[in-house]
């Protein structure tokens, strides 16, 4: 898709960011009372709230696995989250995102500890502005830690992409709509293992390598923010004397 | 007694090496290195690295005393919620009464509370509880409050020091289930004081010298009343 506006000019992007600059991220944990774990995350214009319930016995029964737990992530966009009202309810896109997020989370949780159980992760997008699956997965990681679920790592996600032949980190709304490629990835920051990778658009091999490197670097930056948010909350609440 | 803070760790945080330490609870080992698997408090005891969880579900183990809420009476058993990931099974053979087949509802019904003991936890994490032990019965009266299961040892204190303190100063009957449910019975002011104190203990669970601090508080309260 072509547009009249220049997405990238004089080394700056539309919103004034440099190519390798992230949007502002704010993370808050333990925001919901009835959920075992929860997280509220703002990533630029994205606003996401995540609630974790469980481990609890999986229903319906035939979904249970006698050896390990199952992860049910549910990604949902609120009707008011985008400019044009989104028809509420699951659609093809949100079912796909739910599935890839579930699979990414399964890789980091000690599922063998909870046979026959399910861990339900509800990801609610309150406001959307490109990169909601990354925001949702990042928030889900924090919420799972908050729920006290044993994990190998805290998953984190970030996207890279291409606009006007320039590889950039963390696409904004216009960049996502009118850019030429989008590459969201999720990693396990301790091992560097890739948990999720999707791509929309076209990249050459060189551009792909560059975008992947950039996205991984971005993930590590976001990971630090995640860890800080968790520690902040619990050191304040349980600060000893 | 020191004033230093206890260290809070998060999953995937590096805690040590398998060469000089052993990996304890709440940790996992990868490539000879010990990492935390939980959000919790670091606890080094002898040569073991343990992580005591801050939050999380009750992990049942055999011989634990728990407080359960009956969820569903069935033909020859009950399903009881004991705050674990799975409901626990209470079979009619494991209750002190002589229950006719299909008459389980006459003895325990939906919503009834019981003090029980975890009888068995099998590999599939199927839970069985029993009422056949000393001091186990159906709860009548009193009130039930929920706390974080990981804070239960703090409420009880070393060799029950905290709980006996509470009983002594408030003259209430208190039973702390390992699953994070506390049953309190007594006069109104006493119960209120117990709840307030327990909430305070839960909030300050990580500070040192908590028992003496609580004792002071209770003593002061007692004087005010007089």
Key terms:
heterodimer; A: 241 residues; alpha+beta; Ribosomal Protein S5, domain 2; 5-stranded mixed sheet; 5-stranded antiparallel sheet; globular; B: 226 residues; OB fold (Dihydrolipoamide Acetyltransferase, E2P); Ribosomal Protein S8, Chain: A, domain 1; 5-stranded mixed barrel; 4-stranded mixed sheet; 32% strand
What's the short version?
Chain A is of the alpha+beta class and about 240 residues long. Helix content of chain A is about 30%, strand content about 30%.
CATH architecture of the largest domain in chain B: 2-Layer Sandwich
Assembly type of the chains comes to heterodimer
Strand content of chain A: 25-35%
- CA(first)-CA(last) distance of chain B: 32 Å
Low-pLDDT segments of chain A: none
Main sheet record of chain A:
5 strands, mixed
Can you give a write-up of this model?
- The complex is a heterodimer of chains A (241) and B (226).
- By secondary structure, chain A is α+β, with helices and mostly antiparallel strands.
- Chain A has one domain: GHMP Kinase, N-terminal domain (Ribosomal Protein S5, domain 2, 2-Layer Sandwich), CATH 3.30.230.70.
- Chain A is 29% helix and 31% strand.
- Chain A has a five-stranded mixed β-sheet. In chain A, strands 8, 9, 10, 11 and 12 form a five-stranded antiparallel β-sheet that branches.
- In chain A, helix 2 packs parallel to helix 4.
- The longest helix of chain A has 33 residues, at 205-237.
- Chain A is globular, with a radius of gyration of 18 Å.
- Chain A starts with 7 loop residues before the first strand and ends with a helix.
- The mean pLDDT of chain A is 93.
- With 226 residues, chain B is of the alpha+beta class.
- Chain B folds into three domains: 8-53, Beta Barrel (OB fold (Dihydrolipoamide Acetyltransferase, E2P)), CATH 2.40.50.100; 65-130, Beta Barrel (OB fold (Dihydrolipoamide Acetyltransferase, E2P)); 143-225, K Homology domain, type 1 (Ribosomal Protein S8, Chain: A, domain 1), CATH 3.30.1370.
- Helix content of chain B is 21%, strand content 32%.
- Chain B contains four helices and 15 strands.
- In chain B, a hairpin with a 6-residue loop joins strand 9 (77-81) and strand 10 (88-91).
- The longest helix of chain B has 16 residues, at 188-203.
